Structure formats: C-alpha cells, structure tokens
Amino acid sequence: MHPTLADDLHRLPELLQSARDFAAREVSGLDERPVAHLGKVPGPEPLPVGGTGAEGALARFAERWSPGFSGSAGPRYLGFVTGGATPASLTGDWLTSAYDQNVSGSGGSSASALERETLSWLRELFGLSEAHSGAFVSGATVSNTVGLAIAREWLGERQGVSVSNEGVGALGPVDVLSGSPHSSVAKALSVLGIGRDRLRPVPVLSGNREAVDVERLAAALDALDGRPAVVVANAGTVNTVDFDDLRAIAALKERYDFWLHVDAAFGGFAALSPSYAHLVEGLDAADSVCVDLHKWLNVPYDAAVQFTRRQDLQVRVFHNASPYLGLPTGDPDFLHLTPENSRRLRALPAWFSLTAYGRDGHREIVERNVALARRLGERIAEVPQLRLLAPVRLNVVCFTLADDPGEERVRALAREIAASGEAYVTPTFYGGTHALRAAFSNWRTSEADTDLVYEAVTRHCA
C-alpha cells in the first residue's frame, strides 16, 4: 500500500474528526458566509504527483476553495428552488459515504430494503396509492426523463410496437401537450429522441395564470382524432407556483387516450399541509410523477424520486440484460428501473430526515416557508419602485421593477443583490416581463432572514 494511503488508514478516526470539526465550523458560519460568491476563483494547479495525505488535502481545500463556496445551504439563498440540509439528513448523507453501498440490487445488503421503505413513506406523504412504485434518481430532470421514457413505451404499447427494442422511430410523430412545462421536460424529450419540437404548448387560463386551460387541453386532445398522446401537467410552476387542475385533467381520460405525467418537483409538498393539500388533489391519478427532494424535503444534493403506475413498462425500458447483475423479477432490483446501474444510497438522508422530524416537522417547514414568502410579497407590494407580477400562491415571490423593467436593469439588480452577500434571487421572464423570483424552501429561513432579504432588495432598487 502506498505509504501516504497507509498512514491515512492508520489515522482515519483522527482525520474524520478533523473533517467533522471543519464542517461544523463551516455550517455554524453559514449566516455570516456571503450568500453568493462573485469574486475571482483560484487558477488551476497541476495534478499532484506525491500527494499531501488527507490532512494536507483538507488544509489546501480550506485555503484555496472553501472561501469561494456560496452560502446556498443557508437561509437567504432564495435562488432557483434550493433547500438546505436538515441536521438529520446531513447525518444520513455522511453515513451514505461511510457505508458506500451500491444500491443497484438487493443482494448482500439491506440498503435496497431501506430505499423501498423510504419510497413507501414518500408515497404516503404525497397521497399516492400502492399502485405507484418508485425509485430514487439524481434530480427532477432525470425524474421527468424516466417518467417520459415510460410514457414513450406506453405509446408504443398502444401502437403495438416495442420502442425499447425497435427505437423511437417505430412510433412516428409524438404529441406532448402541456400548459407551462419546465425546461427539463423539453430536455428530456430531446434525450429520449422524441424531440423538443414535439412539445405542444396549450393555452393557459386568463388572469395572470400559468395553469393550463383544461377546456383548451380537451380541444387539443380532440384534434388528435383518437391518436394517443402524453400530457405533462404541473403541480407548482417555477415562476408563480401555479397548479394545473389535476382532477379535471385526469377526468379527460374518460374521453381521450393519453399518459398523464405530473411534474410536482417542489409543488408536490403542498400535500403536507391541510391548508394547501387541495392544490394537488388528483395527483394519485397520474401515470407518472416527478418529485425533487433536495428542494423542499431539504436533503443534500442530489436526490429526487419518480413514481409510476406501470412498473412493467419501466422495467421494459431500463432493464439490464446481464445475468451477472440479475434478471428482473416480480420485485425488480433498482438497476432495472433507472438509467443507472451503480447507484448511491440517496434514500438514506431522506430516511434520516423523515425519521427524525416526521410528517409534522416537514409540514412546519412548508407552512413556515409559505408564510415567509407571503410576508416578503406583502412588503414588496408596498414599495413604489417594485411591483408583484403575480400573487404569492405558495413559496415563490415573482416581482420586477415598476419602471422600465428591461433585461439589463433587472439582471443588474440581481447582481447587486448577490454582490452584497446578503441574499440571492434569480432572474426570470414571466408574462412578457423580465423579473426576479425569490423561492423559499430552506428549513433555516426565518422572519429575520426574510426582512434582511427585503432590505437588500429595496436598498439596491432605489
């Protein structure tokens, strides 16, 4: 064994304690760390020849790279839809690396059984039935891709062809209908060979909405003359967290032949709160569902889940035809359900957080985040230089400059807010207007943090 590696093995408990102490200092200082880092990054260095050992690597990281890392795990990072890592989920994530389980199959470890238990808890959390089976994937993009890959195989089944064997060309043109699809849906269609241009926009409701007009969706389906299609519904749009009427869309199945995929990446968490659960009524009728856990469940990157009613089609798409890995059975191993063969135990941080805080603890995070978003929205509405572009429906505040909200001015405001180190929001484009959006999904965020965000926004928009 290389002498430096042998020394690290001998000193492993000491090295882990050093890493623990360093991480504890970094996490404790999140409130003081700049929320975003816009400064110059270190230049590249050559690959080390001899190496410094783990202790030297930690010291070098602390010197060169740690100062430039953002405070995205902290309470005032409101860009994209970014959660943090609850203490329990961070504990689970560390143990995930310590155990280093490959959750491709169930042989020789209970790790797969833990993933199945976690999936059953999440299925219950989101109001899905036992008809929905699932698997952990890396994020919402892969979750949407898996769901639409199963939909693609379903389209082949309707036409009497096997897409997994014959290729997507056997299908002919595919129709994918949606009102306000996330950009990852178009990306998934490109990856799957269906094509970005096959995503057909359906008009949304009037009155500053992003929810699909169900009557117009019905008309679009009617125009297909019985040809099966895919409908991508939204449970929480990115800009204004609008929700399609899932129950009404599902009812259209009585007249039309389509696969219903629901993108509930973060909006699915509305199910946790009695005040907002009505927004996801009908989710159980979906043929496939996407939920992103490193958003509102506040587990570390990367973790998402996908659910489907047609695991048989999922196995047809993703099975690995290799005897040494094990062929699919009635309860297929996870390597037959997702694009990956080798899989990290992504379920463990979620298992830890759900065990530690339960449904009630995670409901409190959701309800507090919604209350804080509304608090910020109400205060922004009173600022003459700013205006809300949509009501605060759940956890996102979408706003812009009151006068001349051109792209450069809006992006400059975003840069100034980020450069202050006090907050981070992301630019967007909504309703023909360049805007900013503040997304609340971090378990740490408080009223005091929200007020600091408000002060940073208003100070730089003046």
UniProtKB/TrEMBL annotation:
InterPro entries membership: Aromatic_deC, PyrdxlP-dep_de-COase, PyrdxlP-dep_Trfase, PyrdxlP-dep_Trfase_major, PyrdxlP-dep_Trfase_small, Pyridoxal-P_BS
Pfam families reported in the protein's UniProt record: Pyridoxal_deC
Co-factor(s): pyridoxal 5'-phosphate
Keyword Transcription: no
Keywords assigned by UniProt, alphabetized: Decarboxylase, Lyase, Pyridoxal phosphate
Record family assignment: Belongs to the group II decarboxylase family.
Name of the protein described by the UniProt record: Pyridoxal phosphate-dependent decarboxylase family protein
Organism from which the protein derives: Streptomyces lutosisoli
Lineage start: Bacteria, Bacillati, Actinomycetota, Actinomycetes, Kitasatosporales
